Amino acid sequence: MKNRVQTMDFIKKYAMIIVLALVVIFFAIMTQGKIILPQNISNLISQNAYVFILATGMLLCILTGGNIDLSVGSVVCFVGAVGAELMISLHVNVFVTVLIMFALGTLIGAFQAFWIAFVRIPPFIVTLAGMLAFRGLSNVVLDGQTVSIGDKEDFIFLFGGGANCYIPDAFNVEGVNVTCIIVAVLAAIVFILMQIRKRNIRIKKGFDVENPVGFYIKNCAISAVIVAFGLGLAFYKGIPTVLIWLAVVILVYHYITSNTRVGRYFYAVGGNEKATKLSGINTNKVYFLAYTNMGFLAALAGMVTIARLTSAQPSYGQNYEMDAIGSCFIGGASAYGGIGTVPGVIIGATLMGVINLGMSIMGVDQNWQKVVKGMVLLAAVIFDVVSKRGGKLIAE
Amino acid sequence: MAKILLEMRNITKTFPGVKALDNVNFQVEEGEIHALVGENGAGKSTLMNVLSGIYPFGTYDGDIVYDGNVCEFHDIKESERMGIVIIHQELALIPYMTIAENMFLGNERGKSFKINWNETNELAAKYLKMVGLKDSPQTLIKDIGVGKQQLVEIAKALAKNAKLLILDEPTASLNEDDTKALLDLLLSFKAHGLTSIIISHKLNEVAYVADKATILRDGATIETLVKGVDDMSETRIIKGMVGRELSDRFPKRESHIGDVVFEVKNWNVYHPIYNERKVVDDVSINVRKGEIVGISGLMGAGRTELAMSLFGKSYGVDISGELFINGRKVELENAGKAIKNGLAYVTEDRKGNGLILSSSIKINTTIANLDGVSKHGIINKDKEYAVAVEYKNKLSTKCPTVEQNVGNLSGGNQQKVLLAKWMFADPDVLILDEPTRGIDVGAKYEIYCLMNRLVDEGKSVIMISSEMPEILGMCDRIYVMSEGKIVAEMDGKEATQEKIMSHILSVAG
Does B463 map to a domain? Predict the structure, then answer.
């Protein structure tokens, strides 16, 4: 009995990782290994950078109670449009432009957050309005045209997803990027050492710890993935610059959500707002923070988007909000709020990315890809809801 | 002798860990008004929920014989089809629908899909006339007062061809005139042959309107009093309701009582939705260092509302009055301020207002005092874990690890986590609202011990409880609250259940 419960817990906890592994294997077979070619691993990151960034921000909104932000796609487009116009039409310096873009995104976030948090207009309504308004404004700013930023190489390199946006190799070995391998190995070693140190401190204090076999298997597996991933990149062109941004966003937000008081508040509000308020926490501020932050990250996603496409267009960013929301729910965030982690969301986003990429390589029709993604999302949330109900499919 | 309309035989209903009804027998004759009385938690509502099919056939033991047939109700529709209609204490009307729409909700008039509005309104008018309401059936519910809403509920029941009407605390939110009108209406229905069961705490009403009164206590039938045969005075009924022995269910404690630490003067609170309704009326209370003060009263007396409004104005509007902590006047605008000033409120509604069920014991333990485990906004997770384990051991909470989700714990253990949360916040004054509701006897005793330990450490406790034995067994001093007012204050040693009850009822009447 106890064993069965433990197995169930294990499956629930690692369900999406298992699914991700199976999906990768599936596509590796179906594409004769093409999906694990170095170039495709590199593409997976460049193509999906915006999803990782937006999904991280969306997680905070969803944590506060299953609330979503529909406006992010339009905000991405609008901030990108303003940035492109600043650089091209007004010849503003690249770094000043970046600062202005961040400020603009944050301001837009704060504007929407004000209505949501303090006036308590439902987030769905506020961000639906934002979605319409900022799409319209993008068109106005760009005058309906495409603005190319192809000659702003600094900007493109900085946020890059383009052909040459890779961290240069310090060693100059033919066919393989040694810097990339070193970084990957170092990252894996630092990760393992930190985990061991944390575990040792807990043992010293006499706390419960995971059993050693599980602990080492888990962490070695994670390190192996990091190294394998690094090797993949090394045999293509090395570390895409955009990966640096992703790593920073993921690490910072993972730390915030799991180790800080503010992070704790997001979970508390989503878990039980009344109890949180009675615990002396200003819940309005928590909502405000979630949506303001979403604007900030949308600005970053805007930069990444125009850098990758080397232009700004009024149609950019469409359905980005859906990719972000989907990644969160596939990654185990609860549609009722209070549950979800950054690593979970990253796995959700990766799963979506792999499915996209795999089906594209297989030559599956775009429209069928959407059908598959929709079904994956539905299945993930059904799994979440039903498993929480103790396996009963039909609600009482 | 009149015909027996309803007989409930040997009804037993258990909830996980609690026997709510234990071999209850209950008989109602056709054409009578039968009162069902008992303390909170005696099992009155449970019994009526069994009768109306809310707890479906199969989830209880025993037989329901209605109109000569053994019935197996699987849901409320089935019992309604037989003419058994229950009107709950909480009015279940939809404010932005008309009277007529509300009356026929789920029972719409008309053919297949189409609602026949003419028939609906005509029928509604007919039943409204029967209950003496002159408003148009097309008036919105939100535009009529509570008294009239209660009449609409009755008209709605009549529209379902009720033969047996069950009213759960029908006068709880009514003023004196509306109450009198409602009771007279019931008497006139009786003259037309309608049978009613009325659940009420207001014993003068019971004496006025009922032909018989059945007394429930601790999930069992104690006795049935018959008008004209037995004494049906309030004192007689109270004796039946409370007649149990106080044994050593409460741990002994020597009181060391100091100065007044927390004082409330002329506290007034209005209802957040019905702004004209005063829920707390000119309350002045105090508590001393090392003292356990009880607030006794019936449900709906305004005790929780008082406590929550004191705790950083977490309930109500237009709050007025003064608060003093250690003689210093304080303003507590929100829960955060209240906590900083040494107050804690342990809610009666641990799932709704107290715990984050989707989070771990650890996270719940520290949420009201994250300062205690963090520096510069960064949580020291090892320290947090240590705190959670410390309180788990202190309160002997039963759980595999403190990483366990609170939602998976039993009621008693959840209550301990809730107490741990507020003990870790290190308050001087704890307001415990129904601290032992819904938990078993063993866990209750542990919580009593904990309360004793808290006051021994020099803290003060205000305990709100509907269970009179617990108030009598634990408190140094007792306030009695009724209809928003403090109606009596007595020394713990001199108080008796009869005394408290009679204070409550003298105001209710």
Answer: yes
Query: Do B55 and B96 sit in the same domain of this protein?
Result: yes
Number of domains chain B is built from: 2
Between B113 and B347, where is the model more confident? B347
Q: How confident is the model at residue A188 (pLDDT cuts 50, 70, 90)?
A: very high
C-alpha distance from B419 to closest chain A C-alpha (Å): 12
**Pair B167, B282 in one domain:** no
Query: A334-338, A339-343, B125-129, B280-284: lowest mean pLDDT where?
Result: A334-338
Query: Is A289 in CB contact (< 8 Å) with chain B?
Result: no
Pick from B311, B359, B417 the residue to mutate for testing the A interface (most A CBs within 10 Å).
Answer: B359
B135 & B212 share domain? yes
Percent of chain B with pLDDT over 90: 52
Model-level ipTM above the cut of 0.95: no
User: Lowest-pLDDT range, A331-345, A371-385, B300-314?
Assistant: A371-385
Using CB atoms, pick whichever of A202, A207, A338 lies closest to residue B358: A338
Do B326 and B232 lie in one domain? The reply is no
Residue B285 tokens read as: 């209370």
Candidates B357, B367, B380, B432: best to mutate against A (most CBs of A within 10 A) is B367
Q: Is the pLDDT of residue B246 over 50?
A: no
Please tell me the predicted confidence (pLDDT) of residue A1: 43
> Same domain, yes or no, for B235 and B267?
no
Nearest CB to A202 within list B334, B357, B382:
B382
- Does A280 contact chain B (CB < 8 Å)? yes
For residue A322, the tally of other CB atoms under 10 A from its CB is: 17
Q: Find the domain containing B122 and state its range.
A: 4-242
Q: What is the rounded average pLDDT of the residues A363-371?
A: 90
B252 occurs within a structural domain: no
Query: Is A393 touching B (CB cutoff 8 A)?
Result: no
Looking at residue B276, which CATH number applies to its domain?
Answer: 3.40.50.300
Q: What is the pTM of this model?
A: 0.81
Residue B253 inside a domain? The answer is no
The pairs formed by A174-182 with CB atoms below 8 angstroms and a separation of 24 or more are A175/A235, A176/A234, A176/A235, A177/A233, A177/A234, A177/A235, A177/A236, A177/A237, A177/A238, A177/A239, A178/A234, A179/A238, A179/A239, A180/A230, A180/A233, A180/A234, A180/A238, A180/A239, A181/A230, A181/A231, A181/A234
A275:B356 CB<8 A: yes
Are both B291 and B433 inside the same structural domain?
yes
Q: Do A334 and B358 touch (CB under 8 A)?
A: yes
Last residue of a domain, one of B208, B242, B276: B242
B-interface mutation test, from A2, A278, A282, most B Cβ less than 10 A away: A278
The last residue of one of the domains, among B182, B212, B242, is: B242
Residues of B in contact with A207 (CB under 8 A): 382, 385-386, 389
> How far apart (Å, rounded) are the C-alpha atoms in residues B375 and B346?
26
Name the band, by pLDDT with cuts 50, 70 and 90, for residue B400.
Answer: confident
